[in-house]
Amino acid sequence: xxxxxxxxxxxxxxxxxxxxxxxxxxxxxxxxxxxxxxxxxxxxxxxxxxxxxxxxxxxxxxxxxxxxxxxxxxxxxxxxxxxxxxxxxxxxxxxxxxxxxxxxxxxxxxxxxxxxxxxxxxxxxxxxxxxxxxxxxxxxxxxxxxxxxxxxxxxxxxxxxxxxxx
Length: 166
Prior knowledge:
By secondary structure, the protein is α+β, with helices and mostly antiparallel strands. 24% of the residues lie in helices and 15% in strands. The protein has a single domain, classed as 3-Layer(aba) Sandwich (Rossmann fold). The strands form three sheets. It has a two-stranded antiparallel sheet. It has a two-stranded parallel sheet with strand order 3-6. The chain has a two-stranded antiparallel ribbon with strand order 4-5. The chain is globular, with a radius of gyration of 17 Å. The chain starts with 24 loop residues before the first strand and ends in a 6-residue tail after the last strand. The model has no long low-confidence stretch (mean pLDDT 83).
């Protein structure tokens, strides 16, 4: 959040007027993969606070990528609505990946396949690094636990995908 009000971009936080709070964390069911382990290690070396003992910091980190989380304009039955959250940004990311696949096919190249290793291998070179904000507060409740946005991949925003024409 931030660009729509010409302020510094930070992770979406409901307590700061974002409408929603960025989510993320680490799976207790699925292990991280090799490229992601490096990003997770870098994250915990970067943040100024230690994780809470009950956090699983070895599981699959999420999100891998994110996009703007609030104020998407949609039209339903001719009426304009503003929506926020994963259900708004996920179709946009899927559309961007579809365009990448179409461009590769037109160039007679194979599709990307499992995208995640490439995302982490790039170390976020395609991303707009969000380094401020956290996942501690909702509209009604703030907790002492949560994750902090940080340089590089983090469990609040992942890599924040931007669309560049270069």
